[in-house]
Amino acid sequence: MTKLGYLVPTREQIMQGSHGTRELLQRAKFAKDAGFDSLWVGDSLFARPRHDPLTLLAALAIETPGMELGTAILLQSLRNPIILAQQLATIDQLAEGKLIVGVGIGADAPSIRAEFSAAGVPFEKRVGRLVESVNLCRALWRGEPVTWNGRWQVEDALVAPIPFQEGGPRIWYAAGVDAGVERAGKHFDGWFPIGPDAATIARQQQILNGAAAVSGRHVSTAVYLTICVDDSIETADQKINDYLEQYYGFSAEILRGIQACCGGDAESVLAWMNEFVDAGAEHLVIRIVGDYQKALGEIARLRHLLK
User: Fold this and answer.
1) pLDDT in tens, 122-143
2) Which CATH class is domain 3-226+265-305?
3) pTM for this model (two decimals)
């Protein structure tokens, strides 16, 4: 059966002026009790201020044992990979092998460029930086001394702990362009797009499969979906539009052309979600607009309709 994930709203809490974590942990527990399979957190420094994802994942590992935990999406290039490898290995031990690291290069936007600059990281060549960072983490996760001569210099370094998962946490790559999908198939354990629609996912799934076949391995597909469960489609769509514009500061029409969004009653939303399953998605990560308890409860109640 397709796995279901819930995005814990770290950004939304800050937007509402709430900096505590109790509500976030309560939402995560609600999703666990509703039968969801995974919990996810986003990442940003100040472009979209929110709680630190790695610290929060450590708390979720303790508060919601047995759940898969992941980042959607971690800007790995902003972090030193030697330090990051130790942090992720520790979280994977806390989660007993349930960690998934969703990573991305970051959109080419002034606010994201400013984050890179503030962190002292060049924005240019960030694809190569990310791939090398991932490879260095994987090397450090083997539990053997590592010597590395690249963007980072390491000589006979042994990092502990090793992850719970042999070889380290699964790493999924967020990509929307064809070249990025091919990169996911060649270098990563999963592909993690945000849309914009099932037809595009189905087409790009063929690119992914072709790239993965070269190395003779399976690469997972997960899709990030934004939903609003409401009996009125018009009300749900308006809520999504308002949410997107407040969250990103751009026109909802433009954003809907990039991100997969759907509003309406639970049956309609699930039917729409099934389109992505048919396109190749094995894991659906949902970001909820509006009443999260209603949405999680209704999706869980009708989960038998999900393929």
Assistant:
1) 999 999 999 999 999 999 999 9
2) alpha beta
3) 0.97
